[in-house]
Amino acid sequence: MAPNNIHLTIPFYASLYIGVGTSAVDQTLGPFELKECFEVSRPKVIFCQSEKATDAQLALNKLDHNAHIITFDKVDYLFNYEEFLRKYGDDSAVDEYR
């Protein structure tokens, strides 16, 4: 849930590479529409711009469902993409992945 940019492609292709299901969601959806989407997809992680994080959290709350929300831009109270990569990323070559 963000404008088209390089940051969207990395988690998308990474999830395909490891065989995890993905769901592209229109960034213009509000909490009600997001609830309907999340009811079907039951996300575990949501990558979005910080201005959509509140809508995503409201939708998750309506479903009584928890998911990690990771923002592409920096916000004090949310886990952002840079921190996510620093915490979970490494410099391993793709050829070494098993």
Summarize the structure.
This protein has 98 residues and is mostly helical. The protein is 47% helix and 10% strand.
Q: What would you note in describing this structure?
A:
This protein is mainly alpha-helical and 98 residues long. It has one domain. Helix content is 47%, strand content 10%. It has 4 helices and 3 strands. The protein has a 3-stranded parallel β-sheet with strand order 1-2-3. Helix 2 (31-41) packs across helix 3 (50-63). The longest helix is centred in the middle third of the chain and has 14 residues, at 50-63. The protein starts with 5 loop residues before the first helix and ends in a 10-residue tail after the last helix. The model has no long low-confidence stretch (mean pLDDT 90).
Architecture blueprint of SSEs:
Elements: H1 6-18, H2 31-41, E1 45-48, H3 50-63, E2 68-71, E3 79-80, H4 81-88
Parallel strand pairs: 1-2, 2-3
